[in-house]
Amino acid sequence: VGGDGTVLSAAHFLDHGTIPLLGINSDPVSAEEVSVGGAKKKVDERRSHGALCMCTSLNMNKLLPQVLYGSGNLSSRTRIQCTVKSTFSETKLVPALNDLLLANPSPAAVSRFRMGWLEPVKEVPLNSQKSQGEHLSELRAQLPSSSYGTITRFGGQPFDVTRSLNVWSSGVWFCTGTGSTAAMHAAGGVPMDLETKELQYLIREHMIEHDAEKELKNMNNQIIKDKEQLHMRWNSKRGRIFIDGSHLIQNLELGDEILINNQAPPLLIFQRHLEPPAQNEEHDDDDDEGISINHTNQQKQESPNVFDKITY
């Protein structure tokens, strides 16, 4: 019960994706508040939009019984899995439902990192008669000469980093389909289908030469396809990962490696039901009022409130 921020925070506790989430917007904008000084507004920027909430405090008595009787609109949403590998540890962060922001703690500072895509490497069986250096040399020999040239590991699995790029910027956004219409869209990203398995990234204020190649400029904003994995090496002294907003963060240090993919368990969430468009909008105010009252009475007769039958 709250707003979109409350739903995002609650989703972090459902990291296994086996329990469905239902959000109730506790502070919706009523019809009376839409009209301000005779001028109608569609939204109030000070209030929660409630995009992730299934219902509001004004209509929950009608919609919650539908969920209890099994007719709720349940949606499966992809989440971002982020893993941070430091010198002596490998940390898997809580899944992000909306987005991740990787940036310097200071908004005025440059965020430096190297990014690329991970390709699994078939590991050479370890020969006990060979040294570790000889073993790594055999492993590198399998890689093409045009590759990044460094083997990295996550979860014990070796990967080669391909199509890598050095970046100086204000940070980078990652989002799911759910978060593609939020901060990502405001920053210039592309809206995506809510239930898509793809992710999207957008480099913020990427500092590149004016005459840079078109392929380099196109890497500012791209789709991370299903099962693709993006790798980053943090090259600034300090950094932070902001998970679904500013409340949950992970600090980064120089040399930390980050793995981004869509392998987190998806979240089951009840979607809100869109209200049908108003009918007979050409009638005068008195007729509209009468139609609205009759329509409401008809709904009450067809869908009795089950909460009226509950004895406390």
How would you characterize the overall build of this protein?
With 312 residues, the protein is α+β, with helices and mostly antiparallel strands. 19% of the residues lie in helices and 29% in strands. The chain has seven helices and 19 strands. It has a seven-stranded antiparallel sheet with strand order 7-6-18-15-9-11-10, with no helix packed on it. A six-stranded antiparallel sheet has the order 14-13-12-8-16-17, with no helix packed on it. It has a two-stranded parallel ribbon with strand order 1-4. Strand 6 (81-85) and strand 7 (90-92) form a beta hairpin. The longest helix has 18 residues, at 285-302. The radius of gyration is 25 Å and the shape is globular. The two termini are 21 Å apart. Residues 280-312 have low confidence and may be disordered.
Brief description of this entry?
This protein is of the alpha+beta class.
Structural class, from helix and strand content?
alpha+beta
Q: Tell how many strands the DSSP assignment holds.
A: 19
Rough shape? globular
Helicity level, as a percent range? 10-25%
Give the H and E element order.
Answer: HEHEEEHEEEEEHEEEHEHEEEEEEH
- The side-by-side strand order for the widest beta sheet comes to 7-6-18-15-9-11-10
Distance between the termini: 21 Å
Helical region count?
7
Which ranges are low-confidence, i.e. pLDDT below 50, for 5 or more consecutive residues?
A: 280-312
State Rg: 25 Å
Provide the residue-averaged pLDDT: 81
The main sheet comes to: 7 strands, antiparallel
Strand fraction band? 25-35%
